[in-house]
Design a protein that fits this description.
mainly alpha
Length: about 70
């Protein structure tokens, strides 16, 4: 019906059986770790944005508003 080879289905079944505990058991823990990582990355993006704005303003003071753009 879906033109999937029997060997592919067998491989998928083996993967499910070997990793089923990860799918159903540790999903919440991984989600928490992902949320924490995302939070850290958002903080880093904010910090880098502020630094970039600061440096851009400093460059405008040196070269003027129509100074060299890199």
């Amino acid at each position: 019906k879906f033109d999937v080879h029997a060997n592919q289905i067998t491989d998928w079944k083996k993967q499910l059986l070997s990793n089923a505990s990860d799918v159903f058991g540790k999903g919440a823990q991984k989600a928490e770790e992902s949320a924490e990582t995302i939070e850290q990355l958002h903080a880093k993006i904010g910090q880098l944005t502020m630094e970039n704005d600061f440096l851009e303003r400093g460059l405008e003071r040196i070269h003027g508003p129509r100074g060299k753009k890199w």
